[in-house]
Amino acid sequence: MMKLFYSPTSPYARKVHMVALETGLDAHIETVSVNVAQEQPELFAANPLGKVPALVLANGEALFDSPVICHYLDSLSGHTLLPQSGWQHWEILRWEALADGLMDAAYNRVMEERSRPEHERSPTAMTRWETEITRTLQHLETRLDTLGASLTLAHLALGAAIGYLEFRLPHLLHSAACPQTQAWYAQFRTRPAMQATQPV
Ligand SMILES: N[C@@H](CCC(=O)N[C@@H](CS)C(=O)NCC(=O)O)C(=O)O
Asked: What are the residue ranges spanned by the domains of the chain?
């Protein structure tokens, strides 16, 4: 049995959880919810960075961060979500990087507000992250038609990233001029793996 340290609101952990559900590997993973704002010796032993997700394998080895865990689970599933050859491989990794970057910008923007007293917040940094998020949504809008219909790691990473915007920064998601992205997400969010991993 593997052990996944996660937090129910982490978009990175949600992406990993969705990969586990979509590949059927969730049956081999015990999930352990942790509060990353507190000392977590078991998590720190698995990941000295103190971040979730971290996956402890049956042999005691631990993997992080979320792309590494997703690629590992994909390899266990026989590469059902990330083909190992051809341009599609690189295209999916680029989508994953875009989605992870969107999560980074959104997470930083959210934490600036949630984890700092008002006098320590940087309006400059917050504006910069918001601009990054809006620019990325606009880029997504022009490239969404290249995503393809059959499920890959790209779809799951994007679903988790946009899901985090919906959860924490809905005004940014809804004010950006990205109708196709919003329509894609409205459909994608009905997937059982999305429904089962909704942040709370
Ligand atoms: N690049 C990492 C980012 C993980 C990350 O930032 N996780 C957040 C939760 S959403 C966390 O654990 N933060 C606690 C901390 O930084 O101390 C990944 O893809 O797994």
From this structure: 2-76, 87-194
Same fold, 2-76 and 87-194: no
- The CATH number assigned to the domain with range 87-194 reads 1.20.1050.10
> What's the CA-to-centroid distance between 52 and ligand 1, angstroms?
5
Q: Could you give phi then psi for residue 2, rounded to 5 degrees?
A: -95, 160
90-115 pLDDT, tens digit per residue, is 999 999 999 999 999 999 999 999 99
Q: Which CATH architecture has domain 2-76?
A: 3-Layer(aba) Sandwich (3.40)
Rounded distance between C-alpha atoms, residue 147 and residue 139, angstroms: 13
pTM: 0.97
Pocket of ligand 1 (CB under 6 A): 7, 10, 12, 36, 50-53, 65-66, 100, 107
The predicted-structure confidence for 36-75, as pLDDT tens digits, reads as follows: 999 999 999 999 999 999 999 999 999 999 999 999 999 9
Enumerate residues 6+ apart whose C-beta is below 8 A from 194: 18, 159, 163, 188
